[in-house]
Amino acid sequence: MFSTRVSPKAGGLAFVGLLAVSVVVLLARTLSYHGFSVDYKKNVFSKDGKSFDYVSGSLHYFRVPHELWYDRLLKLRASGINVVSTYVPWNFHEPHPGQYNFEGDADLFKFMDIAQSLGLYVNIRPGPYICSEWDLGGIPYFVLGSKKDGVLLRTMDSRYLSHVECYFTELLPRLKPYLYENGGPIIMVQVENEYGSYKACDYDYMNYLANLMRKHLGENVVLYTADGWDMHHLICGPIHHSNVLTTVNFGPNSDHMSAFTRLRSFQGHGPLVNSEFYPGWLDHWGEPHQCKTSSFVGAEFDKMLKSSLGNVFVNFYMFFGGTNFAFYNGANMATDPKYQPDPTSYDYDAPLTECGDTTEKYYAIRKAIKQHRPHLIDNNLLAKVVNSTKQRYGKVKFKEVLSYPGIKSLATKHLEKGPVFTFEELEQDYGFILYEKTYNNYYHNVELEIPEPRDMVYVFADDKYVGKIYRSANEKILLPSFRKLALLVENMGRINYGNYLHDYKGLVGEVRLGEDVVSKGVDWSIWTLPLNNTHLAQYQEIKSKPGPGSILKGEFTIHGKPADTWVKMSKFSKGVIFINGRNIGRYWPVVGPQKNLYVPSVFLKTGVNELVMLELVQMPEPQELFVELVEYPDVGSCD
Ligand SMILES: *[C@@H]1O[C@H](CO)[C@@H](O)[C@H](O)[C@H]1NC(C)=O
Ligand SMILES: *[C@@H]1O[C@H](CO)[C@@H](O)[C@H](O)[C@H]1NC(C)=O
Predict the structure, then answer these.
(1) How far apart are CA 422 and CA 491, in angstroms?
(2) Which residue has the least CA distance to atom 8 on ligand 1?
(3) 198 close to 236: Cβ distance less than 8 angstroms
(4) 20 to 30 A Cα–Cα from 350, which one of 220, 391, 404, 619?
(5) Nearest alpha carbon to residue 336 among 142, 130, 474
(6) Do 569 and 520 share a domain, yes or no?
(7) 305 lies in which domain range?
(8) Is residue 18 part of a domain?
C-alpha cells in the first residue's frame, strides 16, 4: 500500500488530473490483485499482494470416509492450522486404465469445498508418485506392467509418461478452477514427491512434470518440490532455475537451524518451508508402534515458530492419519533386505487419532500457534470440537462358513491350464491369487521352497492348509504325501518408497519341490481373488471346525444410531475383515503392533449388520469362533 499526494503546484492541472487517475487505477489494481505467489525478495508467500502466513497440516481425504471429512477438517482448523495438505493417489482415481473415479470417497473436490467453507487453504500434492505408505506410492498396477516390459517408473520412459499424461489430462483441468487465483482454495501444488531419494535422478522428468502442470494449471501456479534435507536428496529432488520452490522435510529429531541452513545453500532466497514435520511416525507389521511425545513435538514446533531465521512455514505430516482401508497399504524395504508392509491403521501417533479424537499433542500445537501466530486462531471453533462417539457391541459369533477351497467361487478370472502369471499380468490390482497344480502321482515328504514369494504364500496340500512362506523369511515347508498343491498368494502391499518400487506381485520367481522347479510348467490352474465380492459367497452353517483359507460370516444388531467401534480379533491370526460388504482392512494381531481394527460409525447401520472374515493361518476352536466389537482402539504400545 502507498499514498501519494499531488501538489497542484507541481504542474499543469491536466497533468495532475492524469496523474491522479493513474494513481487511482494503480491503487485499484493493487487492491484488487487476486492471486498467490512466492515473494523471493522478502522470503514469504504473498496473497493478494500481502504477506501470507500459514501453518499447515496433512489430512488425506482417501484415508477417512467422506461423511467424516467435515469433522476432521473442522478439528484441523480449530487447532489454528489454516492450510490442509493432501496427496492425490493416482490408483484411487484411476483404478483401471482409463476408468476415472472422482465420486464418494474419491470426490476430492467436495473435500476442498468443505475445506474452503471452513476458511482453510489447500496445498495439493498430486504426484504422480506420492509415497505415503500407499500401494506403489499411488501408481496404479497397470502402469507397472509386467516384469518382462521393464517399464522404468518415475523417469522419461515414454511408456510411463503416456500413462502420466492421460491421468494428468483428466485430473489437472479439474483442479484448475480450485486454484486460489480462480476463486478456489488451492495455494500451492507439489511436483512429484521426494524425488531426491529415488535412484533415477532424471532431471528431464522433473522438468517435464513441472511443464505439464503449468500447461494445465497456468503460468502463475505456485509449484514446489519436497525432499529430505540430506545433501544427496537435495541434489536430485529440486528443480533448479525454474521458479519451482525447493522445500525440505524433517521431523523434531532434526535441528531446524541446520536443516534450513542446508536448504539456503541450495536456494538462496524464498520462504523457508518444512513440508513434512513429523509429529508421529509410520508403523510396520511386526515392529513396535512408533510414537513421539507431545512435549517433544510441541517444544520443537515452538522453536520453529520463533526461529531467529524469521518466518518459517510448517506442515505437520500427519496432523490426522486415518486408515488404510481395503488393500491400499504400502510397504517399505529395509536394506537387509526385509519387506516391511504397513498395517491397516495409519494413526501415526498424530495430533488427531484414527477416529478423530483430540490428544494432548493437539492442544500443545494449538498453544504454540496461539502464542506465536495468534491471528491464525479462530476462537469460536474449539467449542465445536467433539470426540467420536464409541460403542461396545460385544461378541459377534460366526455361524456360517465358506470352507476352503470354496473361495474359488469368488474368483473374477479362472484360467484352466497354463503358466504361472503375476498379478500385473492378470490385470489384478490387489488381493489374492490361487495357483493350483495336480500331479498324476503322489509326492512324498518333499520340501517346498519359494525364494521370492510376493508376499505371503499360504500352502495347501490336497486342500489342507500346511503352512505359509513369507517374503524375506526364506522359510521352507516339508510337505506330507499329496497330489494337489495349491498356493494362495497374498499381495500385502506394493513397496512405496526407495529403490525397490518395481514390486510385481504373486509368484514372480521359482517354486521348487525338492530338486524340481515346478513353476516352469504350463499346467497351473489360476483363480484371481480381488475379494471385492464376498457378498456373493454361498455360506453354509458351521458344523465342524473350518480350516484356514475359509471365509466366516456372522451378524450383529445395532439399536439406535451407530457409533464408532473396533474389531478385537480374539483368537484369530491373520486375514481380512468385511463389514456390510466394505473391506475394512487386514488384521494380523499375532505380530502387531495393531490389534483392533477401526470401524467408523458410517460403515454401520441400525438393525442387522454383517461381518465377514477370511482367516488364513489359524482357525480357532469352535467355541472360540467369534470376534468382539469393543469401544477402544489398540494400535499397539509405543516402544
Ligand atoms: C477426547 O478424548 C481425549 C482422551 O480421553 C481427551 O484428552 C480430550 O480432551 C477429548 N477431547 C474432547 C474435545 O473432548
Ligand atoms: C472386482 O474386481 C474385478 C477385477 O478387478 C473387477 O472386474 C470388478 O468390476 C470388481 N467388482 C466390483 C463389485 O467392484
Answers:
(1) 10
(2) 358
(3) yes
(4) 391
(5) 474
(6) no
(7) 35-382
(8) no
Do residues 290 and 275 share a domain? yes
Least confidently predicted of 23-37, 298-312, 335-349, 467-481: 23-37
Phi, psi angles (nearest 5°) of residue 594: -70, 135
SS3 117: helix
* Same-domain status, 478 and 563: no
The answer to whether the beta carbons of residues 354 and 598 sit under 8 Å apart is yes
Q: Whose CA is nearest to atom 11 of ligand 2?
A: 532
Bond into 252 cis (ω within 30): no
- Kindly report, residue by residue over 102-133, the tens digit of the pLDDT: 999 999 999 999 999 999 999 999 999 999 99
Matching residue, cell 503322489? 442
Q: Relative to the CA of 95, which ligand 2 atom is closest?
A: 5
Same domain assignment for residues 123 and 49: yes
C-alpha of residue 358 to centroid of ligand 1, in Å: 5
Q: Which three cell numbers stand for residue 434?
A: 490361487
104/87 Cα distance (integer angstroms) = 17
Active-site annotation holder among 133, 181, 192, 194: 194
Ligand number, closest to the Cα atom of 427: 2
> How many C-beta atoms surround the C-beta of residue 28 within 10 A?
10
Residues 339 and 303 in one domain: yes
Q: Which atom belonging to ligand 2 lies closest to the Cα atom of 413? A: 4
Q: Is 276 a catalytic residue?
A: yes
Ligand nearest to the CA of 431: 2
Tell me, in angstroms, the distance from the centre of ligand 2 to residue 375's CA.
49
Task: Respond yes or no: is residue 194 known to be catalytic.
Answer: yes
